[in-house]
């Protein structure tokens, strides 16, 4: 009888120890998942570099599906400059040079992109802005610091907006962004709602990315989109996510391997 009791005691001890270990492992997994989610929200993901994009590296090896695994908001351009890239709340849009806006398939390749998982750190409202400069001034007055990276989602009522696209290119690429951007197709619209998505990079970013503010846009009805050039708006809701980690991935392509960084080009400093 004593032997039976001893055996039962050993079995119970083993079961209790095993349960405790499983609980500890489960807690560890949950803690790691929580930590991973927290860290992910503070990473600014950047595919290719601005300097390469300026110097005619217009083909990348990352797909739309891969880009969606790097963030739920993004801006950039597709291969051959075949449309401005906008991602809002996990949905990718393609704004082509003829003004058409569509949702591309997951296999389409991306030439250049900025992306992040948006995790709101702060926000504020703006009753009215008369132009892009007015928005920049309002944001600059509210940012905790201009030494970090920021992602933005800005919703509002737009009295008017001017968006730019890019003309699709075919290899061998002869014109760089210094030529293509000044001659870009421009689209305008009045009295509608929509959302700007974009990023702020400190001046120290140099030619790795666009310094200052860079915004793309998609209308609420998903029929108007592109690179934000100018606008007038009211009832703006500005949300921002401060990021202190920066990850950039270089294309593994022959074009990037052989590019010469001969030309420099930045949008007007903002």
TrEMBL record:
Q: What is the lineage of its organism?
A: Bacteria, Pseudomonadati, Bacteroidota, Flavobacteriia, Flavobacteriales
**Can you name this protein?**
Alpha-acetolactate decarboxylase
Q: Which keywords annotate this record? A: Acetoin biosynthesis, Decarboxylase, Lyase
Q: Which reaction does it catalyse?
A: (2S)-2-acetolactate + H(+) = (R)-acetoin + CO2
Q: Which CDD domains match?
A: acetolactate_decarboxylase
By sequence similarity, the record places it as follows:
Belongs to the alpha-acetolactate decarboxylase family.
For whether the record's keyword set contains Flavoprotein, the answer is no
Query: NCBIfam families recorded for this chain?
Result: acetolac_decarb (TIGR01252)
């Amino acid at each position: 009888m004593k032997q039976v009791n001893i055996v039962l005691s050993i079995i119970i001890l083993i079961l209790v120890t095993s349960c405790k270990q499983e609980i500890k492992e489960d807690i560890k997994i949950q803690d790691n998942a929580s930590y991973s989610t927290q860290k992910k929200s503070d990473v600014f993901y950047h595919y290719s570099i601005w300097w390469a994009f300026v110097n005619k590296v217009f083909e990348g090896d990352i797909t739309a599906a891969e880009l969606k695994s790097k963030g739920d908001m993004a801006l950039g351009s597709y291969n051959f400059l075949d449309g401005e890239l906008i991602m809002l709340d996990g949905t990718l849009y393609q704004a082509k040079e003829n003004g058409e806006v569509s949702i591309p398939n997951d296999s389409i390749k991306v030439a250049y992109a900025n992306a992040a998982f948006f995790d709101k750190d702060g926000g504020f409202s703006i009753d009215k802005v008369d132009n892009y400069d007015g928005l920049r001034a309002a944001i600059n007055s509210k940012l905790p610091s201009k030494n970090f990276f920021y992602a933005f989602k800005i919703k509002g009522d737009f009295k008017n907006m001017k968006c730019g696209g890019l003309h699709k290119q075919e290899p061998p690429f002869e014109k760089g962004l210094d030529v293509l951007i000044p001659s870009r197709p421009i689209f305008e619209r009045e009295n509608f709602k929509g959302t700007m998505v974009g990023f702020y990079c400190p001046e120290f970013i140099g030619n790795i990315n666009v310094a200052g503010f860079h915004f793309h846009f998609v209308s609420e009805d998903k029929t108007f989109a592109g690179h934000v050039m100018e606008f007038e708006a009211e009832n703006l809701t500005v949300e921002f996510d401060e990021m202190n980690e920066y990850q950039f991935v270089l294309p593994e392509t022959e074009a990037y391997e052989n590019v010469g960084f001969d030309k420099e080009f930045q949008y007007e400093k903002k």
